[in-house]
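Hello Y.,

Per our agreement to keep a running log of every chain we model this quarter, I'm adding this entry. I've kept the format consistent with earlier entries: sequence first, then predicted structure.
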Amino acid sequence: MAGRAQPSGPAGSGGGAPGLLPLLLLLLSAAAIIPRGDGQNLVTEDVTVVEGDVATISCRVKNSDDSVIQLLNPNRQTIYFRDFRPLKDSRFQLVNFSNSELRVSLTNVSISDEGRYFCQLYTDPPQEIYTTITVLVPPRNLVIDIQKETAVEGEEIELNCTAMASRPPTTIRWFKGNKELTGKSEVEQWSDMYTVTSQLLLKVGREDDGVPVICLVDHPAVKDLQTQRYLEVMYKPQVRVSQNYPLQGLTREGEPLELTCTAFGKPQPTDMRWLRVDDEMPQHVVVSGSNLLISNLNKTDNGTYRCEASNAVGKSHADYMLFVYDPPTTIPPPTTTTTTTTTIPTTITDTTATTEPAVHGFTQLPNSAEELDYGDLSDSRAGEEGAIRSVDHAVVGGVVAVVVFAMLCLLIILGRYFARHKGTYFTHEAKGADDAADADTAIINAEGGQNNSEEKKEYFI
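Predicted structure for the entry above:
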C-alpha cells in the first residue's frame, strides 16, 4: 500500500560516501529547489517478501520533468541517488534507472530489512512517498506428537502439532484421511517470531488403524507444508462363520455339513475354538482348527454353534444356527405288471366239464409321474407317503393273487385225481335171472352162478 506523500528537505548522505559526494549532493540539492512546474507525483507499492528471497522497490514519476529521484532506507540513509549508490551494501542492486523510474532490488532479505523505504523527488516543493517491505518467515519446523504410539479401540488419544518460529503466526488445520477435524490452537510470541501449537483429541476405532492424521499449515510464506503420522490401533477379533458345504440349499438329514471360522484382529488372534451354545458338542462332530465337520446330519444336531476368537485386546464370537431338514423326497419310476388269464379244461368219465379259473394279477401302476393323483396333499412329503402306500398295496395284492392262484391249481389237480378213481362197476352175476320164477332159480340160471364160476369175469370201466 502506498504511503502518504510528505514534503521533505534534501536527503542525508549515505554512510561511507567519498569526500566529493557531499559537495555534489549540495549542488544537486540547490538545483532541485528550482521550480520545475506542477502536476508531477510519485508512485510506489508495498512489497511483501519471504525471508531469503528478493525484494524489488520501484519509485516512479508521472509527468516527469527530469527531476532527481533518490531512494532512502528506514534509517533515512540514501541507497541510490539517481543511478549512484552511496550506501555500501552490495545486496542492493540497480535494476532500472530513467527520468521516470528508479528500480532497486534487495537480495537475501532478512527480518532486519523490514520497514519503510522512502522515494524522494526534488521538485518545488520536494515530494516524498514511502513503501513498506514486509518480511514473511515460514515455520522452521512442523512436528506431530502423539500421546500414545499404539492406541486401543475406543480410546481417546491426544495429538499435538507445533509450527515454530513463523511470522506472522500460522494457522494449523487437521485432517484424518480426507476428513477435516477441529483442533485447539495456542500462540506464543518470541521476539518477532511466533510459535503455534494445536491440540487434537481423537477417539479411535478399528477403522482408524493405518489411517494418516495430517497437520497442515496455512501461511502466506509457504504452500502445502504438512506433516503426518499414521495411527496404530489395536482391536478385538472380528469373527465370521462361512458354510463350505452344502454350498447352496438346505441342510438335510443324512447329508454332510462343513463350516469354516475366520478371524481378523490386531494383534492377530491366536486362540480359536468351537462350541455349542447351551448344549454339549455332539460326539460325531469333528473340529480341526478353524473347521467344523458333521459327516451325517441328523435332527439331534439342531442348535447354535459358536466360534470364539481372542487376542490381547479381548474376545469376540460369531454364531451359526443349524436346523436339519428332512431328506429330499423322490418319486419311484413307473412299473407295469402284465395280467395273465389261464384256462384249464378237465374231463371226467361220463361227464365232461370245462372249468375256467379266476383271473389273477398285480395292480397296474401308472405309466408316468403325471398320472399320480396327489389329492389334497399339502407338501412333497405327503406325496411321497402316498406313493409308498400305493407300492405297498400293489405288493400285497400280488402276493394274495399268487396264493389264490396256487390254491386253485391244487383244487384242480385234486379234482382230476379223484375223478380218475371213481366209476361204475358192472358184473355178470345176475345175467339171465330176469326170467327166473324165484330167487333160487335166478341164482342157478344166472351167468355168474356156480356152474359157470370159472367163466365169471369182472370188468372195470
